[in-house]
Amino acid sequence: MGWRGRSFVYWLKTVYYPYLISSMQETKSLSLEPFFNLSMDLLCIAGYDGYFKKVNPAVVKLLGYSEEELFSRPIREFIHEEDRDLTARYRENLKNNVPLVNYENRYVCKSGEIIWLHWTSIPLDDEKLVYAIAKNITHKKKLEKERIEHLINLVDKNQELKRLNYTASHDLRSPVNNLLSIFGFLDVSKIDDDEMLETLDYMKLATEGLNNSLNKYVDLLSKKDNSNIELEEVDFESILKQVKSSISSLLVNANVTFKVDFSALKGVRHNVNYLESVFLNLMTNSIKYAKPDVPPVITITSRILEDRKQLVYTDNGLGFDMDQVGDKIFGLNQKFHHNGDSKGVGLYLVYNHIASLGGKISVDSEVDKGTTFTITFKS
Fold first, then answer.
1. How confident is the model at residue 334 (pLDDT cuts 50, 70, 90)?
2. Which residues contact 304 (CB under 8 A, 6 or more apart)?
3. Domains in the chain, start-ordered, CATH in brackets?
């Protein structure tokens, strides 16, 4: 027992018990039955022999047993089998005049339902009785269980996505390398068409950018955990230039306009591959979900707000209905627009690349007005 527990026991013995006895003596004429019977909490008096001596209606209602049934059987028989031994050990402490505070165990109702109870029990050694109050915390326990299951599910999905990304990225390297080798065999000196030469140059740059990204991504995914993730000072302008080069044909075809201002903050300490992936997924989403016949306008600015380093990314695309989308926007396999190319992975990756290194990302959007992502990096 820690110092707080010992202090509490000392207070009970030296202050509370004398006060309680004195109060009982002074108020013998007052009946406590209404308080006992009307309480929503479970109130009971148990003997040192392990049997209930008195219970309030809340106990009868919750457990489903009659008073006669509760009084005729040892309390141990109503406790969940897995919790009986531990509860018995704590009951021995009560017999040694040590109060029981914040103890949780499971009871089995007459219907077979299992419930969780949170107990505070005070022994009166002179009477060989234990006065106890319990709260039904079954709903709280169910929420905790669901939360744990949800977290486990998220971890499993993360691992599955990591394996999928690794396999896909690894397998894509072969055809990309083959494509690069074809460019090596081409004798451009024999091509007189300037437009064709420009197209080939675009294709070669895009393929080289894809190859570099795949190599970096495979290396990154092969690392076991975040403790192995390499951090360095990353320049926003350099990252943007690299990503624009890798998807140059997409940007040209979509007639994308950029408005960029990194004057307030040139860069941050982060993983370069993660940040490249963030820029890449946000930019390709802006193209993918642009309004029909409206060229995408992408605005990217950096800032320091109350000592927080932030990157703000805005586009003028289709946007989202935030009342419907809510927190689901960063979920895996979540799709919010009817687009055949959408797989519901991009924003999930963006979120994880930021959150896994201690950062935060928020979104603000309106339908047909565009979307703004605010990334706050770990200080």
1. low
2. 264, 265, 310
3. 31-136 (3.30.450.20), 223-376 (3.30.565.10)
